[in-house]
Design brief:
This protein is an alpha/beta fold. It is 34% helix and 22% strand. The protein starts with 13 loop residues before the first strand and ends with a strand.
Length: 300
Amino acid sequence: MSSPINVQLSLDNFELIEGIYFPSDYAQLNKTQHKQTWDKIGKTYYGSQKIDTVEEASPIKQDYTLLTGTPGGTWNKFPLNKSVDSILELGCGYGRAPLHLSKNKNLQCEKYYGIDISQPLLERLIKVKKEYDFFPGAEFFVICTSAEILPLQDDSIDLVISNCVFMHIPDAQLRKLMAEIARVLKPGGMFVFNHSFHNKACPSHIIHNFIRKLNPVSRNPIYLKQYSGVEIEEMLVESGIKNKCLEYVVEPTKEYAILPNTIKGVPVPFAKAINSSLKPSEKQKTTLAYGFSAYSTPLV
């Protein structure tokens, strides 16, 4: 493992309160619609509220898969028993991905940095850490802020991970974030952006986009830009990530869709059955895939 660095210098403008680092301009950040939206979502997101409501003696406390669900995709390819000095997770939420990597893949680290804009999700992450002790023995830096500027030093992170997050970030901010990832990532470091980009060619997204345009007043504030595989590769090059990770893959996810499962919260008849029955050819996958993942190779 590499020598420790003094990351605390990068957090001078942050205040540590009950295990979470908050920026000095947190009051201003709290006024933004994006922050308020994700704080609201974070109170009930993906069953995470069970951490608050389930009794201590309940069997669910001993079975984290029931609590969080097991993330798939690129995580299935992640190697066993890997050890790194530092991990940065963007949009960490309540710890679903690191919990899986720690418990199922035996990933180990000395330092874990989790960044999310939602305070309720981070509060639950701290509870999940106490319940299941993922990354045992690691130093934890849980940071509540927008990810546009990372409070970390240059060339300080071995592994950057993110799970189903980047499609919720506006394009201009995402490009700044990618440049920040390139800045903090060590030369030869690794990244895994699992199911992180929506596919602009996917028919399901095209239908959704058309419906959204019919009602410009009511837009989903967390559903943002989509990309092609080529555009994602260009972003990785322009950001400088390719200079740090010479080999990487941008690949379509194994979830395919012609029809949206719901429109304005209303289920579309037979959509799930039709989508799950799709068996596209290699050429069709880049069109029908719901999204894309990107990750450095090899993951060893």
